[in-house]
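Researcher: Here's a chain I'd like modeled. Treat it as a single chain, no partners, no ligands.
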Amino acid sequence: MSRKRPLQLRELRIEASRLAVAPAGLSFHLSNEVTGGAGVIYRWTAHHVREIFVAVLPRGYVLDGSSVLQLTCGPRGSEPQYRQILGSSEFYIDDFDFLAYAAPPQERQEILLGMIEAALRRIAALGGRSDKAIVAASEEVREINFRLTLPVLKLTKGIPGTRCTVQVLRHLSPEQGEVWTMIVLRRGIGLLKEVPIGPKPNYLDGRGLYQQASIENGKYVLRHRLGHVHFTYDLAQLGLDDERQPKRVAPRGIFDQ
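Model: Modeled as a single isolated chain. Structure tokens:
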């Protein structure tokens, strides 16, 4: 029987343990935002850091053979510190200091990045793997100041009859979390238009929503994989000329010859 190929790390999740206690200024529950309670949502503060970290890891990076890793912060009770189940791993950070984490955003993201690096290096060591890629990824996240813009290449479409292209960008930052935009580029000129897609700030991974792109009846359309339309933009608003149409040329006069 052939040995299963280890999976590359594709998704990093960060959650609070069920025994963790939130200090003032921090909440573990999404309902807090709805009910108007005080404090920022812990999961949301972690979104841009974990997404940028995974994005800058080397292509095809394998940590422990699982595609999904959850780092659970806070007391674990009787749960094992580290376990793997069906392609997913969970690792507890028992001593995560939530009191220190209830700090200004700049300090929070540094605390979180340090925690991610330490946890992944520990997991790599348990499997006898090098931690060089983990350390390099942490350094890169700091160098780019916790901000990253990623083009979603599969959603790129050329506008028929023009030298223009529609692209979609995924922006990650501490201020906005995750924001998506559509841009229109013209060959030889550059950016013509940038249009926001969805809400901002936003703390959800939009890759599950925007999976298919098409140009239909002069509109750029983004769909979910099941076909549900999530975004449309009427390209007629740009006033682009159809370069496939022959241009009328004034007849040349006798003195023009």
